[in-house]
Each structure stands twice: as C-alpha cells, then as structure tokens.
Design goal:
CATH class: Mainly Alpha
Strand content: under 5%
Distance between the termini: 15 Å
CATH architecture: Orthogonal Bundle
Number of domains: 1
Helix content: 40-55%
Low-confidence stretches: 67-79
Order of helices and strands: HHHHH
Largest sheet: none
Structural class: mainly alpha
Radius of gyration: 13 Å
Number of helices: 5
CATH superfamily: lambda repressor-like DNA-binding domains
Length: about 80
Amino acid sequence: MTVGEHIRRERLAAGLNQTDLGRRIGIAQVEVSRYETGRVEPSLRSLRRIAAALGIEPGELLAEEEHENTKGGGDRCRS
C-alpha cells in the first residue's frame, strides 16, 4: 500500500473528505488529491501534519503492505 493509499484510507476512516483534511492542515483539496493519487509525495512535515489531523502516528502512513509483504506470518501482519 502506498503512502497515498494510506492517507486516503485513514481520511475515509476519520469521516473526512479531501477538502476537510486540507483545511485541517492548511493546504488545498487538490494537493490532498495529489498525495492520495501518488502524483506528489508529501514532505515529512506534511506527513506529520496529516497524521496529527487524522489522530494517528506518522508511521502508520508509511507502513508497507501489512499482509502481502510479510512472509511466514510475521508480527507486522495486522488483523
């Protein structure tokens, strides 16, 4: 899962649309869209702001695919 996919998933889980998230972190909706589609990689500062707005840790936006990249049922696999 890409950073953008994580942002989108967490944004939807928080019940926000792109405009809402953009307002919370001080950027335009179009920039949120660019992050989510992978056209633009958010800076570390932006990732921190996004995570704070979504009530999660920044690392949750950077996590690799939880199931497919874990062989042998390692502890990175979440349910």
